[in-house]
Amino acid sequence: MDLDIAKKELEEFIPHVRSISDSSIRKMAGRDLTRFKQFKKQGVAVRFGRFSQKENDQIRKNVEEFLSITGIESAEKLLFTSRYPEEKETINRLKASHLFCEKLSEGIPRPWRLIYYRARKIFDPNNYKGRYTKEEKEKLKKYHALHGNDWKKISEMMSRSNLSVAMKYSEIKSAINYGPWSKEETQKLMQAVEEVIRKRIEMEDAESLSSSKNSHRDLLIDREKLCQKLPWSEIEAKVGTRYWRQCKQKWTTILTKKMTKGQQLYRGMKALETKINLIKRLHEMEPEDSNEVNWEELSRIIGDVPRTYVQAKFYKLKVTCVPFWQKKSFSEIIDYLFEEKLPEFEQKL
User: Fold this and answer.
1) Confidence (pTM)
2) Which of 55, 84, 273, 277 is the most buried (most CB within 10 A)?
3) Which phi and psi (to 5°) does residue 153 adopt?
4) Is the distance from CB of 122 to CB of 56 less than 8 angstroms?
5) Would you say residue 213 lies in a domain?
6) Span 113-139, pLDDT tens digits
7) What are the Myb-like domain coordinates in residue numbering (predicted)?
8) How big, in percent rounded to 5, are the helix, strand and coil portions of the chain?
9) What is the residue range of 48's domain?
């Protein structure tokens, strides 16, 4: 397919497609475009963001079915074929002849690349090995000094997943400050966030005739751009003294303070009222998965705060109030909070 035609057709499903590299667009045109059109006929929109439990289960089903069809022994061999050099040629031949790409993405309205990465995360036995020991941290520093950001090579040497070693290195690569944020650090964070948002908007405006006139304007930015999908590794590098998760948490705190004009929204009686309203509204929504929750709507229950703030409060609520929450589905957690904890909170209030 012609590249310009591919961009135009994909743009209907992926609005930011023109910011993606040409090679990636060509792959998406081959792997995704026909699927996206089929989903459109079914009235199903292409999804991004966190995978739902239903989607995770579909990935597991697709992988298990592909293994049974081909006789490949394990999901690790299927998804991490390079770990098995002696069988690599045979496995790749089976994947090609049995249409691995199509089978893996079956029933999941997302770009194939995201489905593939998610499958690798689910099935990587190196992805769930607990905390890093001091010895592992020293090894990680040593291997990075030798191989740079070749996370694939480093992950193989450490028997950890690519994502795990990359994220851990971001935490330990320098003298990270774990104390209170200084004024200078906070200013650096705010400046870094502004820079990445401005850069993103300028890219979006690149084809607009008026973009040159607006390049130095004061920006009116919607909440979505302030709260979601910020490149935290890039922001971490700009701040220098904090790792990405600290930057994300601090930014949520800053936004919350700005949006609420410094009011204490989650203390004492207000905290009880918030918990009660949050549980009631979640129960009314009847979500099967966290992706089905309108977090923006819930943010107004607490008092016009970032959705990440609400998600953090809900996470704390389920961890502290729901026994064995890890083994419960999202809907079961909501039901437990509604049936067991809501009466208790109302009585306290």
Assistant:
1) 0.54
2) 55
3) -65, -45
4) yes
5) no
6) 889 988 988 888 777 677 888 889 889
7) 124-172, 173-255
8) 70, 0, 30
9) 3-123
